[in-house]
């Protein structure tokens, strides 16, 4: 939370800008030229596991694993047979969703594979994705980092998402969801706008307390130096 507050205050001190608007950070996400993939749902046996990709080769990977010429309709679940591109062996029958950028979580082309959650199925699909040129396993938090870099989430929303994932009580869930929905961000933006107006009201005044205090004897020493 405090990291987000400090960033907004620092932005306000640099000049009047629209701080409440999500926008690109101006720098590319680390490794943004690569397409990443990872298991997005929890580890272990489960009914359904979600494997996600993000990056320019997501559509290519989807075509390879489904042996299809065309991509499915955007943002519609489609039932497809997934196969290993190296051997052609069937891996699973899964629901796939295609999210062309920028209308996706990260702002990049994304694909979700909703597969059966057995360890062998998940491992097989991950290995198949790893064999596609241009794809690599995602680092921890890299999907969210790309969403932030592409202006899909601001700092307070990123922290709210992390809190929501780790929430263990109803109170934690409610607080994290409010932060993810932008409640804290709007509050911080109000403070930032106030700081901006007050700062620019006094010209280029920045950090006044730097000039308030003087070292004891500083005036006397400087006067002696002039004599």
Automatic annotation (TrEMBL):
Any one biological process term the GO annotation gives: tRNA wobble uridine modification
Record domain GTP-binding protein TrmE N-terminal: where: 35-152
Keywords for this protein: GTP-binding, Nucleotide-binding, tRNA processing
GO molecular function: GTP binding
Gene3D superfamilies the UniProt entry points to: Probable tRNA modification gtpase trme, domain 1 (3.30.1360.120), tRNA modification GTPase MnmE domain 2 (1.20.120.430)
Coiled coil residues, start to end: none
Stored InterPro entries: GTP-bd_TrmE_N, MnmE_dom2, TrmE/GcvT-like
A cellular component term, taken from the record's GO annotations: mitochondrion
Localization per Swiss-Prot or TrEMBL: Mitochondrion
Main location: mitochondrion
Family stated for the protein in its record: Belongs to the TRAFAC class TrmE-Era-EngA-EngB-Septin-like GTPase superfamily. TrmE GTPase family.
The protein's name: GTP-binding protein TrmE N-terminal domain-containing protein
Organism from which the protein derives: Colobus angolensis palliatus
């Amino acid at each position: 939370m405090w990291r987000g507050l400090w960033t907004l205050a620092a932005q306000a001190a640099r000049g009047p800008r629209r701080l409440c608007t999500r926008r690109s950070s101006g720098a590319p996400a680390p490794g943004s030229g690569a397409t990443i993939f990872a298991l997005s749902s929890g580890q272990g046996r489960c009914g359904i596991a979600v494997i996600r990709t993000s990056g320019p080769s997501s559509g290519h990977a989807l075509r390879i694993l489904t042996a299809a010429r065309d991509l499915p309709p955007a943002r519609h679940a489609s039932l497809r047979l997934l196969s290993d591109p190296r051997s052609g062996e069937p891996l699973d029958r899964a629901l796939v969703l295609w999210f062309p950028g920028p209308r996706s979580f990260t702002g990049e082309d994304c694909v979700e594979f909703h597969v059966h959650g057995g360890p062998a199925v998940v491992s097989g699909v991950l290995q198949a994705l790893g064999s596609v040129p241009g794809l690599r396993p995602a680092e921890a938090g890299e999907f969210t980092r790309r969403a932030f870099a592409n202006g899909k989430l601001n700092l307070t929303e990123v922290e709210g998402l992390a809190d929501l994932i780790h929430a263990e009580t109803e109170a934690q869930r409610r607080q994290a969801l409010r932060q993810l929905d932008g409640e804290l961000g709007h509050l911080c933006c109000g403070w930032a706008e106030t700081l901006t107006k007050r700062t620019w009201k006094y010209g280029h005044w920045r950090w006044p307390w730097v000039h308030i205090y003087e070292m004891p004897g500083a005036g006397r020493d400087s006067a002696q130096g002039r004599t």
